[in-house]
Design goal:
Two copies of one chain form a homodimer. By secondary structure, the first copy, chain A, is of the alpha/beta class. The first copy, chain A, is built from six helices and 28 strands.
Chain lengths: 402, 402
């Protein structure tokens, strides 16, 4: 029998052991920055925008010149010039004057507001009638409204999405320091396993975990290598592990389900390094292994693909986040349980769900069927001390990544 | 003045005009399939698993042989062999017999249940004592439990996530038909724009929309090309558009904010094809343009980056989904509004929000500041006929993609 640990204790242990391990920074082009994690704080080094800009087509003027004007009694201003798009204007506006400005154009010195074109009339004699009063600041973005030198915008650890690419472009940051992607090596092991493109003979099954865990690690910010299926003997496994350790930041072994693998994975870790965890009080996922070889965290995930996927999300993914110095990017939402779910005291349960409206339906299947997850939208956890959940109880669902 | 259309009318128009346009299929390796969209239904062509498998280490037996056994009165069975991992066994089990099986191993013909090792005792004389009754089917996955020939698993249009990679591997599908990525060409235009790595002179601003819209299209399943900043004259724009049209499935022009561009984009579309929409009753996003040139949908998005981003999500993204034949992958969730928000009747409002617990805080900023979106988690819409929303009202938030 395994000496099992609580899931949350194992999560804490992983955090403690590898809290200090962070990927080094590398410089990349902004064009390649989508989904990467900032390695340094980003602050403004200049005024954005660099000049007072109009947000409409109209006339830049002094608000005090048009105070109290109306349709019946327009204010008459002298048009003294035109601000051109993308050009600096040297005009300095005096009382009683206005300057034509396009949306986005620089307003001249001395102006403090812009009146919209549709609220004016061009009398054709070099004067403009303004029919609507205009408070100082109206229809303007002031120099530095988007940011001032020294003002912070992003903290390190920020994941870069499309809008951030826009903001970083606005700052002129075309070369960015981001965290290197953790290198995750995945090894499948088990005598019953064959590759997905190998012929299937009776008694063998295709390796599901190798391709699945590779995709999952990739989806969560890692660069990945799949070492393939290693035969289930201590020597083959040890050779593969020794090689992988020199080539990765996290090593993920996935046991087949054979009795031999169950032993050879923990034995290999114990021989080459330290075995910390051998069994977790969680369903599915009990035969989960965690240790360390030469500073590299090593996971032994269950052969059952549903268990392997959940243990990846609950143990490996948080470590990836922490190595990237990134906040977890999980989306959680509370739903009402559409039917009662039973649970055993003494272990935590991980329950995949389908979301329908504001309700979730638990997916209860036989252990080890990969199709269990094919339609799932996310999962929730049932605490170790609960015997089950009632219909209608609120549950906090962690949504799968889209 | 623009003749403005309702946002939902524009969305419907785009759907109608391009409902029949779908990307052709291409074959890719399973290894490259993450985030791609299936072009055909996927069904099982064989039994998965191909044989009855044990889910525990133990003994395969006939349930009827151990009915009523207990610690005090174990059932005694003759062990007639061992099922080996990954090997087919020729043994046919008779009454009173059992066979040792590992987790994941094939159980022999004649057996209908597996008893766990810990509920048995090996008497060392070729007989096994079973201390716990075992219903037929216990601790077994039957042939075909994960899938039977002809059984459906994925519909075309399914987006492939990490767990699906696992399922597809289980089916032996290493080469997959997926929809080709729509090719999106992005062109920025405006005399005030310079590239993010160009020197900034007074009156100019860096192009935000080009890099941002490229990243957004990429994030939503497109392959993208940025044609750069085109000078704001009809001739340059027309030349760039004529070239782009031959090279893309969707063309996205992003007006600078200059008065010239406002005219030259719709004029170019009208000259080379059909201009359908010139103005949408939405804030932000009013100066949005939509048309068609030689079967290619053409968008003219506002220069204001916040408006451009929302109009991308609300108009271009649904078209990408439809060309991929994919269901929208937006995640929506209902939150309570943390403070009142005003709105004008006669136009729809798009309000970016920050989520805190079960509440959302609207981000109210000056129009056109890209930093408005830097911390946003999603957005909600205020219908055209509403004058505003009260504090505490429930709002349906569309979450930004992580």
């Amino acid at each position: 029998m395994l000496y099992v640990k609580n899931l949350s204790d194992v999560q804490m242990l992983i955090r403690e052991k590898f809290a200090g391990v962070q990927m080094p920074a590398e410089l990349i082009m902004l064009d390649e920055a989508l989904d990467r994690v900032l390695a340094e704080d980003v602050a403004f080094t200049e005024y954005i925008p660099a000049f007072d800009r109009s947000t409409v087509d109209g006339y830049a003027l002094k608000g005090s010149d048009v105070f109290g004007c109306s349709d019946a009694m327009p204010a008459i201003l002298k048009m003294v010039g035109e601000a051109l798009m993308g050009k600096h204007t040297e005009i300095v506006l005096q009382a009683g004057q206005c300057v034509s400005v396009p949306t986005g154009g620089e307003i001249p010195q001395g102006a403090d507001a812009v009146v919209m074109l549709e609220d004016t009339e061009d009398f054709g004699d070099g004067t403009i009638g303004v029919r609507k009063p205009c408070a100082p600041g109206a229809n303007l973005i002031f120099r530095g409204d988007d940011g001032k030198p020294g003002g912070g915008i992003y903290k390190k650890g920020k994941r870069i999405h499309a809008v951030d690419i826009g903001t970083l472009a606005a700052l002129g940051l075309t070369i960015l320091p981001v965290r290197k992607k953790p290198r995750v090596v995945i090894i499948s092991s088990g005598d019953e396993l064959v590759n997905a493109d190998d012929p299937l003979t009776l008694g063998t099954v295709r390796d599901v975990n190798g391709p699945m865990l590779k995709a999952a690690a990739q989806e969560h910010g890692a660069s990945t290598r799949f070492y393939g299926i290693v035969k289930d003997d201590q020597l083959s496994l040890e050779r593969a592990v020794r090689q992988a350790i020199r080539d990765c930041d996290i090593l993920v072994l996935s046991g087949g389900t054979s009795a031999g693998v169950k032993d050879s994975i923990p034995e290999t870790i114990a021989k080459l390094g330290d075995l910390y965890v051998h069994g977790v009080a969680v369903k599915p996922g009990k035969p989960t292994i965690f240790g360390q070889i030469e500073k590299i965290p090593v996971f032994g995930l269950p052969g059952n693909p549903v268990a392997a996927y959940f243990m990846f999300l609950l143990l490996v993914k948080p470590l990836l986040d922490s190595m990237l110095g990134a906040e977890p990017d999980e989306k959680q939402s509370v739903f009402s349980l559409a039917c009662a779910v039973s649970s055993n005291q003494g272990r935590e349960d991980i329950v995949p769900v389908i979301i329908e409206g504001e309700q979730v339906y638990p997916i209860i299947g036989k252990s080890g069927l990969i199709t269990t997850l094919a339609g799932a939208d996310g999962y929730f956890r049932i605490a170790r001390d609960r015997e089950g959940l009632k219909k209608g109880e609120p549950v906090e669902v962690i949504l799968f990544k889209e």
